[in-house]
Amino acid sequence: MASVRCGELGYWNFFAPVLNYSGVEAYVDSIQRYVSDGWLRFPSELYYPVRLKPCGENTLSNLREQGVNHIELRMFDLNPLVPCGVDERDVIFAQLFLVWLASTPPRPFSDSAQVQAIQNFKNAAHYDLKTVNILLPNGEVNSVADAALDVIGEMETFYGDFPEGIREILHFQKEKFVEQENRYSWKVREQFGNGFVKKGLALAKQRQSEAII
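^ thats the sequence. predicted structure below, dont judge the formating
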């Protein structure tokens, strides 16, 4: 696994939630239904990779009354290879990805497609993305790596006239799927594979010292 937390062994609901994305009211109602029927004790127990959040206290009433304030992305693991735990280029890429998605025409998201999307997400948490497949919305089966490269290729076209720094960030992400040596999971395995506890504690102490200084 490249990410145990995001894979089959991660923290998921025991069922595959199916939500209504036709509007905020419908989205809230679909979550409330699972709570009312006893599938969830609290709305916060919806362990989806992407969740819509309101401003202030995270409650369904706030979400219903105030609308969506931000989108929570729950698929990021801490990156021990950088001092702050996340590479700035990954954060910017997430923003670019969401803007690109917002620019594409709305697509139907059927119940079966939602269930398959969760399975695709779990498949994408595997270590070798060139041999692990996902099922695309058009019915085609493709490797995670090739599917990701297709998406980034579309983003490169979309952002073709943007500053060079944007294209460099897209290239940085693209290279993770071209060569596995560029992925964080590969680097962590190479550096910490033997004696990861001892080496991990040493790195943690180093990061702590750097933060204090």
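The chain has a mean pLDDT of 94.
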